[in-house]
Each structure stands twice: as structure tokens, then as C-alpha cells.
């Protein structure tokens, strides 16, 4: 199963934080799963996003869509972008308090696997969107 509400991603799945991010503490980071070939948010994914998106002071949201390795690379890249876009659209519609946050959306299919793709369970873990919520820097 994908990380639950407000569950941090394992260190191996986190995106490296550069020096430009040092003043922006991570509020929460989650991953939500998707069914095979789908960019439709499940009820469990919506609940996880809702729990992680609570709170004030969020200044940046990074959304990274991912897929398993089944199918053509171009189709997986498109699906990864569609998954990330679905999360961004959901956040805009359901969480107006985040309207001022900078949103970075990325989707890559043949990239960044959470685990091996050699089992149905592994492929299911790779069909995900990672979402990181960052606090507004107080120095700005």
C-alpha cells in the first residue's frame, strides 16, 4: 500500500533538497496510489491529500506523477503527467487556502521507481503521485 495520510516517504523516495530549499521546511510529504492505466483519484487518495493539505503557511507544493514500467514509455510519460495534473486540479478545487502557493508539477513514467516492477505489488507501488508541501519562508 502507498503511504497513508501525512506519512513521510522513505528516504530513498525523497527528492534531493537543494540549498535554495533550505529556508523552506517540509510540512508533509505523501504518495497516493492509482489503479493501472488510470489518472482518476481514488477515495483513499483524496482522503490522504485532504489530510496532508490541512494547515496554513504552505508556500510551495511539489507534485510528481509516476507510473510502473508496463507499456510504452511515451504512454507512461503522458499518464504520469495526467496523474500529477489530477492532483493539482483536486488541490485547487478542494483547498482554496492553498491558492497562493507555488505549484510545481512534474510527471515522468520511466523514472524514479519506488520499488522493483517484477511483481504486481511492486508495480502497484510505482503507480503513484508524490506530493510535498513546503512552508513559506519567514525570511522573505
Task: Write a structural description.
The protein is an alpha+beta fold and 140 residues long. It has a single domain (23-135), classed as OmpA-like domain (60s Ribosomal Protein L30, Chain: A). The chain has three helices and four strands, in the order βαβαβαβ. It has helices at 43-52, 73-94, 120-126, and strands spanning 26-33, 58-65, 102-107, 128-135. The chain has a four-stranded mixed β-sheet with strand order 1-4-2-3. Helix 2 (73-94) links the parallel strand 2 (58-65) and strand 3. The radius of gyration is 15 Å and the shape is elongated. It starts with 25 loop residues before the first strand and ends in a 5-residue tail after the last strand. Mean pLDDT is 85; it is low at 1-22.
Task: Describe the secondary-structure layout.
Elements: E1 26-33, H1 43-52, E2 58-65, H2 73-94, E3 102-107, H3 120-126, E4 128-135
Parallel strand pairs: 2-3
Antiparallel strand pairs: 1-4, 2-4
Amino acid at each position: 500500500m502507498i503511504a497513508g495520510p501525512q506519512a513521510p516517504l522513505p528516504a530513498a523516495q525523497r527528492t534531493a533538497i537543494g540549498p535554495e530549499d533550505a529556508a523552506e521546511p517540509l510540512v508533509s510529504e505523501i504518495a497516493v496510489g492509482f489503479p493501472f492505466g488510470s489518472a482518476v483519484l481514488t477515495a483513499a487518495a483524496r482522503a490522504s491529500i485532504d489530510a496532508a493539505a490541512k494547515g496554513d503557511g504552505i508556500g510551495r507544493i511539489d507534485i510528481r506523477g509516476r507510473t510502473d514500467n508496463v507499456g510504452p514509455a511515451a504512454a507512461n510519460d503522458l499518464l504520469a503527467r495526467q496523474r500529477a495534473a489530477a492532483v493539482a486540479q483536486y488541490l485547487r478545487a478542494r483547498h482554496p487556502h492553498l491558492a497562493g502557493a507555488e505549484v510545481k508539477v512534474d510527471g515522468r513514467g520511466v523514472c524514479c521507481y519506488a520499488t522493483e516492477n517484477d511483481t504486481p505489488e511492486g508495480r502497484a507501488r510505482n503507480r503513484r503521485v508524490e506530493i510535498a508541501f513546503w512552508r513559506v519562508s519567514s525570511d522573505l
